[in-house]
Amino acid sequence: MTSEGIRVSCVRSWGTEDIVALYRAGGWWKDEYDPAEIPRLINGSFAFAVAVDTTCGRAVGMGRALSDGISDAYIQDLVVLPEYRGRDLGTALVSCLIAQCRDAGITWIALIAEPGSEAFYRPLGFARMEGHIPLIYRGEP
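Given the sequence above, the corresponding structure tokens read:
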């Protein structure tokens, strides 16, 4: 998928610096994280999509899907650099990830959205899971 000098595609590897910059832009990078783990993170994902500015070759957006490749998939880590937002790159990234999942026969695809982002995901086919509560493991009781 290409749009206005941006190419969106699923990859099996990408430069660590670009991906760390994207995690920082999303507010998800912590100083104690090891950048050397980025290749393993990408390779361990069922699908890893990047939006690349073709004028400079830099990744300006990303997202990934986690799955066993058979049943369910979860989309996470969707982020676009602030200066590239408003160009439908998030939509293109999610669409790329959904296509990878559906091509593998996966139809149950979910995500946990940031507060206030529901309006972004609804037109892409996502709906609130009424009666369900997202939980996170915080350690032993």
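The chain is about 25% helix and 25% strand. Try to locate this feature in the token string yourself.
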